[in-house]
Amino acid sequence: xxxxxxxxxxxxxxHAASMAELGHEVIGIDVDPAKVGALSxxxxxxxxxxxxxxxxxxxxxxxxxxxxxxxxxxxxxxxFVAVGTPQRGGSYAADLRxxxxxxxxxxxxxxxxxxxxxxxxxxxxxxxxxxERIAGSGTGAMLAWNPEFLREGFAVKDxxxxxxxxxxxxxxxxxxxxxxxxxxxxxxxxxxxxxxLVTTDYAxxxxxxxxxxxxxxxxxxxxxxxxxxxxxxxxxxxxxxxAIGFDARIGRRFLGAxxxxxxxxxxxxxRAFTARAEELGRGESVAFLKEVDAINLxxxxxxxxxxxxxxxxxxxxxxxxxxxxxxxxxxxxIRDSPALDVAVRLKGLGAEVVATDPEAIAxxxxxxxxxxxxxxxxxxxxxxxxxxxxxxxxxxRHMDPAFAGARVKRKVVIxxxxxxxxxxxxxxxxxxxxxxxx
Length: 438
Description:
Elements: E1 2-6, H1 10-21, E2 25-29, H2 33-40, H3 51-61, E3 64-67, E4 78-81, H4 97-106, E5 115-118, H5 126-136, E6 142-145, H6 155-160, E7 165-168, H7 173-186, H8 188-192, E8 197-200, H9 202-233, H10 237-245, H11 266-279, H12 288-310, E9 319-323, H13 338-348, E10 352-356, H14 361-367, E11 372-373, H15 377-381, E12 386-389, H16 394-397, H17 401-405, E13 412-415, H18 422-427, E14 431-433
Parallel strand pairs: 1-2, 1-4, 2-3, 4-5, 5-6, 7-8, 9-10, 9-12, 10-11, 12-13, 13-14
């Protein structure tokens, strides 16, 4: 099948390359010539495991092309809209300019029977509005909403072998059947493998994505709230999470207390969700998400406070090794990153911050050139008065405390992700501080 993907940022580039890997003929469209140039040469403009391999394979096979001209989308049977929906300036609401611009650009190139499939995360009600515009265009095209559920670091796997598929279909039965048939053809491999499929209306499909993110954010902030209690009672939040995680109704995943969540999805999506609920007159229904957000932001400051305490209240001029800059491991994404935020706050207090990360240094340096960056963790540790781990890359979580201890000035570590073996580090003579751990 011939497919177009409008918007080749993180979501769109992964989707386009993955669709080509599944055997489809794909044209990716983006307004950024530099990005299109890199993708056309098989170079991923961001770090994502597995993407370079399928990107190169798709380009070399001829199944995958990229262009800045949206007219090149003409002739595709399915047009995926994968543009960003950032937080609107001065507001919690989502900025839909890029979605609307993508639809405006597509309309002149749609043909009868074409399917526009939205993948962008949008406020509920957006799809119905766009469907009216497409219907009024006289093109005979249809709209479906097909939300993505990607985990950065595992996005290729999540696209090629998803854990579920959701189709938000048109209300008219004939159009719904045609739209489903087209999406079934796109995802034939996943469906043949038994991937669960939910077919529903536009509003439910939109809400599935934002409610999933809201739930995950709530679960993370819940255990961080328990960490706040543990810190004043002497309880161990990690053992608490282990104990309640055995309950099948709760589960252990996403119950890791630490510096909190970040990235380009959870923070802005829960804020946009609260803004949309307020527009609908139901702000009280999700008012708790404001506290979820507040708890999350407090944990960053808690890491900074622990660092200042560990430095005897005198951070000025002290050398602090910050391990991790990306918002999570297996990514170079620094959007709303707790790790980078902690590094910048410590720098603002006068500390000599030396930061490292396996993938996110270049992105971090562009935004915060005031920090000192080193590629090698040994260089970051050298002469440090304090070590602060804030992104749980495997090379940090499995680091030998003796290796680290031979390089630092003082054996003091803040474990901002509760991922180190506290017993082992303390046995090696380290002063260990976790979050919500005695």
